[in-house]
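Sanity check

After download, print the first record. It should look like this:
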Amino acid sequence: MDAVFRALADSTRRSLLDELFREDGQTLSALEERFSMTRFGVMKHLKQLEDAGLVVTRRRGREKLHFLNPVPIRLVNDRWVSKYAEPWAAALSDLKHRLENPMEKVFEIYIRTTPERLWEAITDGEIRSKYNFGSRVTSDWAPGSRLEMSHPNADGLLGEGEVLEVDPPRRLVHSMLALWSDEVKSEGTSRVTWEIEPVGDSCRLTVTHDQLREGANNELYGGWPMILSGLKTWLETGELLTTPGSLLYR
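Expected structure tokens:
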């Protein structure tokens, strides 16, 4: 947490996050044009944001793109802010912005656990319900198999998809069609990629949600910070979060 607070203490770094909030997936050159400082200066600030986990980079061909990773900020909210704030305050921190086509969101988090235990927490329906708004995601997790998301308080399925790639305990790719409302259903099918990489006594989990249309409904990807925060908390402490997002559908 200290690295996150140090990174957010600087106004230039906060401005860089604001710029990525406005338009995610930007190159260094694009960001440099928006600040009255040298390229090296922008690189230095981006490096500190990366070290704090607030920015994640991905290569697309020859370009290196920078993505805002809101998960650490969500963790600050869940562990420091929500205990003092009213439940509706969490809604004020939802990330709502439009991205270049195709829309892509990248989330990264470090969890002190093993790859095997993390894989189980992602693919076991009962465990998944503990941090996924109470919803179960079930499948036999074989390539080509069907995936279903359900909740005991919902009238029907909340989502469905197909398992595209499986490489336990390292990589899982599946499609997802959200069904919890007509608005999200009309957005069509998107793709979710889970990547697990061991780092010392922990794992780096990267979730990429892509193949979304430009300006897609925020409900499709806005819940990821709360889901991953809940996953980390449950695996590391065995406790369940009581933030508004984790109480959805109860």
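If your output differs, re-run the checksum step. Summary of this record's structure: The first helix runs from residue 2 to 8.
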